[in-house]
Design goal:
globular, 17% strand
């Protein structure tokens, strides 16, 4: 049964995100990463046997395997994946940036963008298959101009990667694919093995082992983010359809027992109707056990005295996904300051964003939308600055540079300017 809180709720108490203690896993992940650093392919295969129960002769997925997978999936699947890839490409193409240059009196200053040469994409396995993750990560990387995309994903019990994932990877333009998952895959991409190339950036979601491994290798490589359990917050007024709201909340609750589904509404009647609908829809949901645990542990309905207050609550929570199931939803868009992705109106369910609409589904969680952004083309680009002064321009600036350097006690810096004009030996 989902919990309902009335107008006198304390937002800091009922929705505080507890700091998770993962100490019991950290040493295991550290050992896995260290083993892969020194043991390479052999260590990756050892952990694949241990955690996935699969022995693989070679880690690389062959071209024949990819072609076989592509031929085995239904034409309808390929049609939908290709449409989704086109939508994702259309949206992310608008994110392309160009550099700039300033020229004045012998001075040239500029900034240029360069794509990451090699990016690593992690695609989880486990209880579900995620070809959508392939698209959401690989398509922006391709648009950014990444030279090579390396993908790691756990093999199934038969030693093969799921056909749907391979088909999506071919459509998205992934260059190389490897049969390994977990912390060992992250370590392999961060440090390189005999088979798996070292990359410069690792993106993609995963379980706690993957998250901790990404955290551990950060600095050796860049990462996109440390993603937590999935979240949805629905702001709804009294005219919203309780069936739709309940279904949208359950769409995220079925992800994970730790997922969070929250409704904030100014209607006590809607709150009761949604609670009843959640119970009713859970009865026929295939992933009922997971969704029920999520609703029981983290599901909440909050009743406020206005939609304006509901939006304030949403900004305080900073959810991964925010649905605005209210009249004239666009009128509220500028008031929303903290959210990963916003879904406007009663006919824009969050599932659209997961699969098809085009904006990225890799989003900040755990309140980090207050200071971070969805995955984008920017994540695969680096900014480089450049400077060029003529002799005359440097001579004009020399006294100021020398004074600034000497005021910091860095006489060598000052000398490097003076020496060009005979002022130092």
């Amino acid at each position: 049964m989902i919990k309902i809180f009335d107008k006198d709720f304390d937002i800091n108490k009922i929705l505080s995100r507890e700091i998770q203690s993962y100490g019991e896993y950290e040493e295991s992940v550290r050992q896995i990463v260290a083993d892969v650093m020194t043991g390479g392919d052999a260590a990756v295969k050892k952990y694949t046997r241990k955690f996935d129960g699969v022995s693989v002769d070679g880690l690389a997925v062959s071209g024949d395997e990819i072609d076989e997978a592509f031929a085995s999936v239904s034409p309808r699947f390929l049609e939908v994946v290709e449409k989704s890839a086109e939508n994702i490409a259309e949206f992310h193409s608008k994110q392309i940036k160009s550099g700039f240059e300033i020229n004045r009196d012998g001075v040239t200053l500029g900034q240029k963008y360069t794509a990451v040469e090699k990016a690593g994409l992690y695609v989880p396995g486990g209880t579900a298959s995620y070809p959508s993750t392939v698209l959401m990560n690989a398509v922006p990387a391709k648009i950014a101009g990444v030279g090579e995309i390396i993908m790691c994903t756990p093999p199934s019990a038969n030693g093969k990667v799921r056909a749907e994932i391979l088909a999506a990877a071919k459509i998205a333009g992934v260059d190389r694919i490897y049969k390994c998952g977990g912390a060992q895959a992250i370590a392999a991409m961060a440090y390189g093995t005999e088979s798996i190339p070292k990359v410069y950036k690792i993106v993609g979601p995963g379980n706690i082992f993957v998250a901790l491994a990404k955290k551990l290798v950060f600095g050796t490589v860049s990462i996109d983010m440390i993603a937590g359990p999935s979240e949805i917050l629905v702001v709804a007024d009294g005219k919203a359809d309780a069936r739709h709201v309940a279904a949208d909340m359950l769409s995220q609750a079925e992800h994970d027992k730790l997922a969070s589904a929250v409704l904030v509404t100014d209607s006590a009647a809607l709150a009761k109707d949604v609670a009843a609908e959640i119970d009713r829809q859970l009865e026929t949901l295939p992933r009922r056990e997971i969704a029920s645990a999520s609703i029981e542990n983290n599901g909440k309905i909050i009743v406020t005295d206005s939609i304006e207050r509901a939006v304030e609550v949403a900004n305080a929570i900073a959810p991964e996904h925010l649905e605005m199931c209210v009249e004239n939803p666009r009128a509220w868009l500028d008031k929303i300051k903290n959210a990963g992705s916003v879904f406007l109106g009663g006919y824009t369910p969050e599932a659209l964003g997961d699969y098809f609409a085009g904006p990225n589904h890799t989003l900040p969680t755990g309140g980090s939308a207050k200071f971070s952004s969805p995955l984008s083309v920017d994540d695969f680009l680096k900014k480089t600055q450049y400077i060029m002064y003529s002799a005359e321009a440097l001579e004009k600036a020399a006294a100021d540079v020398e004074y600034f350097a000497e005021s910091e006690g860095l006489d060598g810096h000052a000398r490097s300017v003076k020496i060009r004009f005979g002022g130092a030996k």
